[in-house]
Design brief:
Layout: H1 22-29, E1 39-43, E2 48-57, E3 61-65, E4 69-73, E5 77-81, H2 83-94, H3 98-108, H4 113-129, H5 133-146, H6 153-166, H7 170-186, H8 191-208, H9 213-227, H10 232-248, H11 252-260
Antiparallel strand pairs: 1-2, 1-5, 2-3, 3-4
Helix pairs in contact: 1-2, 2-4, 3-4, 4-5, 4-6, 6-7, 7-8, 8-9, 8-10, 9-10, 10-11
């Protein structure tokens, strides 16, 4: 683990897994043949599958074509780039018009639920940027209603958690994290989601200042042992927070061992 021990409460969850930025869309729009655009999948092991077609994305699995049909567990996905989103929603996104995007998304729910969910998610983020959290959260409800088992449902928990952490509403953040963990465990989602929810619960307690250092360190350590190797993103986050907690409580040697490891 290398790098600084500084930490901004929301930094780990403000880098969205599913990026549809204006810059990205602008680049895609420059392609000479929109029909030839393909989807992209970024995986937790750091690899990237380009020039694919995503056929289905649920919490349980992602199915796609890449020199034949393939599938992997839904918790292995870091983010996706959906070429069709640019084709259908590029105009309203460039105009930063979440109302228009929501209206369009509703038309795709039955025909293309994943595309609708992408649009609902991006709309919610635009509403949050415009300081309209109430409408953002209502839009996230529409995302879930479009497909309760869709792969982007996990993003509704992350988005709300990040909002609450960023606004110092640590109790609400912890409730969201606990619900994420419970939903993952009770509904048979891939185990990575449950581990992520657990990390979010610990993080909310940590940054609130109400957690006892030894308890936090034990929980981070237990989670780290569980996810190391299998879920590198969660492991890295837990390691960073554990090192910061050790340093803050005076165990600089313990923190240094993590950073030098």
């Amino acid at each position: 683990l290398k790098g600084t021990m500084s930490f901004a409460p929301s930094q780990w969850f403000q880098s969205p897994r599913f990026l549809f930025s204006a810059a990205l869309l602008s680049g895609l729009a420059c392609a000479t043949d929109a029909a030839a655009q393909k989807d992209v999948i970024y995986w937790i092991d750091g690899t990237v599958s380009r020039d694919v077609r995503i056929k289905e994305f649920s919490l349980v699995t992602i199915k796609y074509t890449e020199r034949g049909s393939k599938d992997r567990a839904g918790d292995q996905v870091v983010r996706i780039e959906l070429a069709e989103f640019n084709e259908e929603f590029g105009g309203v996104l460039e105009a930063r018009d979440p109302d228009g995007m929501v209206t369009m998304a509703r038309d795709f729910i039955k025909r293309k639920p994943l595309l609708a969910q992408v649009a609902f998610l991006e709309s919610a983020r635009l509403y949050l940027e415009q300081n309209n959290a109430g409408t953002a959260f209502e839009t996230l409800k529409e995302l879930i209603a479009a497909d309760e088992k869709g792969g982007l449902v996990a993003e509704t928990f992350r988005t709300k958690f990040d909002y609450y952490i960023g606004n110092g509403q640590f109790g609400d953040a912890r409730k969201v994290a606990k619900k994420f963990t419970d939903e993952a465990l009770n509904n048979g989602w891939p185990e990575g989601f449950g581990h992520e929810g657990t990390f979010m619960e610990i993080l909310a307690m940590d940054v609130s200042g109400n957690g006892k250092p030894k308890e936090l360190q034990t929980r981070y350590s237990d989670l780290l042992r569980t996810v190391q190797g299998a879920y590198p993103k969660i492991a890295h986050q837990a390691e960073v927070r554990l090192a910061a907690s050790l340093q803050a409580s005076g165990d600089k040697d313990g923190a240094r061992r993590l950073y030098d490891g």
